[in-house]
Write a structure and sequence with these properties.
five-stranded parallel beta sheet; 2 domains; Protein-glutamate methylesterase/protein-glutamine glutaminase; 14 strands; about 350 residues; CheB_C; seven-stranded parallel beta sheet; phosphorelay response regulator activity; Rossmann fold; CheB-like
Length: about 350
C-alpha cells in the first residue's frame, strides 16, 4: 500500500522537484498538487492523501491559517516545507504548535540541486510523518488547558545546584519539550536539551520557549556554567555535551561527525552526562523516531542516574522512548503532561521533601 502524498507549494519548481523525488520511491505516490491552500482544499477531499507537504509562506492564504483550519476540520499528518530565514523558522515553530508533525527546510541557494540532495531526508520524514499520531486542534487546545502553571519551588538550593536534568527528543519534540519546560519552577536544576533540529531553527526555538517559561531558555554557546533555573538547547550545527570545570558543570559544543545520523545527537549528550554527572543526573527521553538516545540513556542508568521516558499514548512518534525502554534504560514511563512533576518529585524526594503527598 503506497503512501499517498499531496503537495501544497506556490513554487512550480518546488512542486515539480518534490513530485520527482516522491514519485521515485516505490512506496510513495503523489496524488495531487496545489499552488495555494484554496485550490488544495477541494483537491484534498477528492484525493484523500495520507500526508500533506505544506509551504509556510504562500499567497491567498498562508500556511499557518490553512494548517489551523485543516487540523480543526480534517486532521491529517502534515510536513511543513520551510525557508531558512528567521521569519521562516518562527513561523515553523508556530506550525508545530498548531499540529504539524515535522518540517523540512528549503536550501537558500541552488534550490533544484539542493532539494535533490535532500531526497533521503524528505522521503524519510514523509514515511515518519505518515505514521505519526496526529494532534487535532481540539487536542492541542485541551493539552494547553491541562498544562497549568509552573510547579512549586524546589526550596532546596543544594538539589538545584547539584542535580541536572538531561533531555533528548526528535519528531514531535518541540511541543513535548515546551510542555515539560513550562511546568519547571524558576529554581529547578539546570537542564540540557538535545532536540533534532537543523541549524537556524534552534535559536528561534529557544527564544520562543524563553518567552513562555518561568525558567531562562537559550541556545547553548559552549563554555557556559550550567545554572539552576536555566535550560540550554543544543544548536543545530553541533553536538551538546556536559563537562566539568573544577566544581562546576559547564556546556561543551562539538562538530564531530553525526551519531545515529544526527548532529546534534541525543546519545552524545546522554553519554557525557553519564561520564560527568552520574547519579546527579535525571534523564528524560521524549517522542522521536529511531533509536538515538537509547544507548546513551542506558549508560546514564549504569552510572547511577534515574531515567524517565514519555509514554506511547502521548508521543507523536513512539520510537526513541520505545528503544530506551526495550533495553532497560528507563526507570519510569509516563505521559508528557506528568513528566515534569514526576522528575521534580523524584529530585525532591532525594532531598527529603516531596512536592505532593
Amino acid at each position: 500500500m503506497k503512501i499517498k502524498v499531496f503537495i501544497v507549494d506556490d513554487s512550480a519548481l518546488i512542486r515539480s522537484i518534490l513530485t520527482e523525488i516522491i514519485s521515485s520511491q516505490p512506496d510513495m505516490e503523489v496524488v495531487g498538487v496545489a499552488p495555494d491552500p484554496l485550490v488544495a482544499r477541494e483537491l484534498i477531499k477528492k484525493t484523500n492523501p495520507d500526508v500533506l507537504t505544506l509551504d509556510v509562506e504562500m499567497p491567498k492564504m498562508d500556511g499557518l491559517e490553512f494548517l489551523e483550519k485543516l487540523m480543526r476540520l480534517r486532521p491529517m499528518p502534515v510536513l511543513m516545507i520551510s525557508s531558512l530565514t528567521e521569519r521562516g523558522s518562527e513561523i515553523t515553530m508556530r506550525a508545530l504548535e498548531l499540529g504539524a508533525v515535522d518540517f523540512v527546510t528549503k536550501p537558500k541557494i541552488s534550490i533544484q540541486s539542493g532539494m535533490m540532495e535532500y531526497e533521503e531526508l524528505i522521503t524519510d520524514k514523509l514515511r515518519i510523518v505518515a505514521r505519526a499520531r496526529v494532534r487535532t486542534r481540539a487536542q492541542v487546545l485541551a493539552d494547553a488547558s491541562k498544562k497549568g502553571g509552573p510547579l512549586p519551588s524546589m526550596r532546596s538550593p543544594l538539589i538545584s545546584s547539584e542535580k541536572l536534568i538531561i533531555v533528548g527528543a526528535s519528531t514531535g519534540g518541540t511541543e513535548a519539550i515546551k510542555t515539560f519546560l513550562m511546568k519547571m519552577p524558576a529554581d529547578c536544576p539546570g537542564i540540557l536539551i538535545t532536540q533534532h533540529m537543523p541549524e537556524g531553527f534552534t535559536k528561534s526555538f529557544a527564544k520562543r520557549l524563553d518567552s513562555l517559561c518561568q525558567i531562562s531558555v537559550s541556545e547553548a554557546e559552549g563554555g557556559e556554567r550550567i545554572l539552576p533555573g536555566h535550560a540550554y538547547i543544543a544548536p543545530g550545527h553541533s553536538h551538546l555535551l556536559l563537562t566539568r570545570s573544577g566544581a562546576n558543570y559547564v556546556t561543551e559544543l562539538s562538530k564531530a561527525e553525526p551519531v545515529n545520523r544526527h548532529r546534534p545527537s541525543v546519545d552524545v549528550l546522554f553519554r557525557s552526562a553519564a561520564q560527568y554527572a552520574g547519579k546527579n543526573a535525571v534523564g528524560v527521553i521524549l517522542t522521536g523516531m529511531g533509536k538515538d538516545g537509547a544507548a546513551g540513556m542506558l549508560a546514564m542508568r549504569d552510572a547511577g542516574s534515574y531515567n524517565f521516558a514519555q509514554d506511547e499514548a502521548s508521543c507523536v512518534v513512539f520510537g526513541m522512548p520505545r528503544e530506551a525502554i526495550a533495553i532497560g534504560a528507563t526507570n519510569e514511563v509516563a505521559s508528557i503532561n506528568d513528566l515534569s512533576e514526576l522528575v521534580l518529585n523524584y529530585l525532591a524526594t532525594q532531598g527529603g521533601r516531596a512536592l505532593r503527598v
